[in-house]
Amino acid sequence: MKVALLIGSLLSTLSLHAAITLGAYNIRNFDYDERYRIRTNKSELTTILKNLKADVLSVEEVVNTSEFNAFITSKLPGYKAAISECGGAHGQHLGFIYNTATVDLLSFNEDLSVSEPGQAGGCDSGSRPLAIGLFQIKSTKQKFYGLTAHLKSGSQADSVLKREKQFQIIKNIVKELKSKTGVADFYIAGDLNTTEYINRGVDYKMLTKLVSDLGMVDLSQNLGCSAYWWGGTDDGKEEPSLLDHLIVTPGLRKNSNEAQVHAHCKKVSCRQATLQELGISYESVSDHCPQTATIQ
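^ thats the sequence. predicted structure below, dont judge the formating
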């Protein structure tokens, strides 16, 4: 009897400290990139997503939402998708896929205030909205908000200024949700387009301030990269950049784990690389790489 009680106690303790993995992935204009006339390699994407083993994954650039929902249902049994109705000027919707065995999605909505700061946001204009999901971990009943963001791209002064305003809006939304709902734990993830982050430029300073002001931790701060681009020169080498982030409140960070990068970024260890070295995930799934972090 004592042994049975001890085993039961251990199992209960393990349940209360169940590991939860969060992540983020920009899937480059799923399921057809008109710019480069490349159709998403769904077989490769399936393999990538299964290997991530994420419980909640923020996703961006879902252009064909109906096909994406069908893809998740067909290729990732046990997972569901919650994707925004609005996608901004380029129809790039965003949201979450989540493991129904480990978390419940209690609510989902989108906020257009980040699309055109200071103006009335349009569903099909400006930047993408902010996707907001309220989740509950099944084993512990802990609630947390997830915010998936895809901010203004570009290194031009007007793009940087817009991102600065978007960061301020996100900060205000987090503070307001905390005050109104009493939920203390949040994560912010997605393509924040921090073009000057690696060089410790203006994007680095803006994002660092946001994280500090909210008392959160950027689990991606030490990643060598999260995406690749041609680098502005025709030298046959693609350049790494750090555009995507996974930011959490201390209440979600039960250990010291930092984010890990996957796909072609992991394959070439975030160094300069040729198209051949980067391989199929770069060529026919996304220029970005998924990242994950186990938070409990």
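The longest strand covers residues 21-30.
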